[in-house]
TrEMBL record:
InterPro entries: Pol/histidinol_Pase-like (IPR016195), RuvA_2-like (IPR010994)
Pfam families in alphabetical order: PHP_C
Species in which this protein is naturally found: Sediminibacillus albus
UniProt-recorded name of the protein: TIGR00375 family protein
Gene3D superfamilies the record matches: 5' to 3' exonuclease, C-terminal subdomain, Metal-dependent hydrolases
């Protein structure tokens, strides 16, 4: 059976529902479900998106409207197709139980709208506000896993190394087995401040597929990180099989920001964000409290130097991050090539130089190989890249 390769970003928030009510408080107003699907299909060229606020009843109502009136359709193998993009229904949930020393975020995905509705019905009595994103769940992490599996879903810990609201990031949890059933985890989302080389220093992660997703809070950030997946078609069943490497399916490449660019890569002063000092006191303000960076946290946890067979991890940034590539230039590129994925992966040097300067064309080609230099970030501030 022939397999094709598809691009997927499986962590996208919704800013507003169809009634203009907030879902993700920090999400952009334009970040509606319909706009996400249009942006992914027409501009980004993303074949599969995971919208992780699909537990919200108003979001489910919009899905039903898209199916009834705007050509969306439920797939027999799971997921909802809209134009060229498949929607995977997901929910981001905050766990903070007796085994968890700090709140952690997890992603739960389901094959159909009916399964997601059943999950919402179960969840609404265990959550203060079912209408908002990433809300605290009152129950154990393992009970949540059991429910997800009962409903034929996928369970993935989210951005596992970020200092806040992640599995390892709080500084207390040393093993996922302290909080979760390792046999009921379908993959591990790395987050913007870590890549596969860093994460594989922790041996208990070796058997899991690594995901790289955008955690988008605006339309522009869709595809900030993504993966390429070998599947027969973009559907929930095929995604499940790819996560577990069944019959040749699997993740063939991860595309993510250089960890140096992540806003939590380095440890910094919690007050003024200056780098950590050797005597544990900030030289600028005298503060002794720090935001521990992902690099330092992984160094605390690492127990392995073994090389693990992984797909390539390509350090890449969204096109909008490139210096001198403004909105007008981006639009010229889109007019010429169709989508951002076409620009990033398919356009030749000759074709690019017919639209933009040789310097910018060279930067796009270097980024395609993961070779653009990065200036580190930390403490809530993103790093940056520079053109050679």
């Amino acid at each position: 059976m022939a397999l094709n390769r598809f691009f997927a970003d499986l962590h996208i928030h919704i800013g507003r529902d169809m009634y203009n009510q907030p879902v993700k408080i920090t999400g952009a107003r334009t970040l509606t479900l319909s706009n996400i699907l249009v942006e992914a299909s027409r501009n980004k060229g993303i074949d599969m998106v995971g919208v992780i606020d699909s537990h919200v009843p108003a979001v489910q109502a919009e899905i039903e409207e898209l199916i009834a009136d705007f050509g969306a359709k439920e797939l027999t193998q799971g997921g909802i197709q809209y134009e060229k993009t498949t929607l995977i229904l997901g929910s981001e949930i905050e766990v903070y139980d007796q085994y968890c020393q700090g709140p952690i975020h997890v992603l739960c995905f389901f094959p159909s709208l009916s399964k997601m509705k059943q999950f919402t019905h179960w969840l609404q009595d265990k959550m203060t506000n079912i209408h908002l994103s990433s809300q605290r769940y009152y129950g154990s992490g393992k009970d949540l896993q059991y429910k997800v599996k009962e409903l034929e879903g996928l369970f993935i810990p989210a951005h596992v190394f970020t200092p806040f609201k992640s599995l390892y990031g709080k500084g207390v949890t040393r093993s996922l087995q302290e909080v979760l059933d390792p046999d009921l985890i379908d993959g591990i989302e790395l987050g913007l401040s870590a890549d596969t080389m860093m994460a594989d220093q922790i041996s208990e992660l070796h058997n899991y597929t690594f995901l790289t997703n955008s955690d988008a809070h605006s339309l522009a950030k869709i595809g900030r990180e993504y993966q390429q997946i070998a599947m027969e078609n973009p559907s929930f069943r095929e995604l499940n099989w790819a996560l577990h490497r069944i019959d040749g399916r699997g993740f063939t490449a991860n595309f993510g920001m250089n960890p140096l660019l992540g806003k939590y890569h380095n440890t910094v002063c919690s007050e003024c964000l200056n780098p950590a000092q050797a005597d544990n006191r900030c030289s600028s303000c005298g503060n002794r409290k720090w935001i521990k960076g992902v690099k330092e946290r992984i160094n605390e946890l690492k127990d392995n130097n073994k090389q693990v067979a992984r797909p390539p991890y390509v350090h890449q940034v969204p096109l909008e991050y490139l210096p001198t590539l403004g909105p007008k230039t981006l639009q010229r590129l889109l007019d010429a090539f169709g989508t951002e994925m076409d620009i990033l992966h398919r356009a030749t040097r000759k074709e690019l130089e017919q639209v933009v300067s040789k310097k910018l064309a060279n930067a796009i080609l270097l980024m395609r190989k993961g070779k653009l230099p990065a200036v580190p970030g930390g403490g809530g501030k993103y790093g940056r890249i520079s053109l050679p």
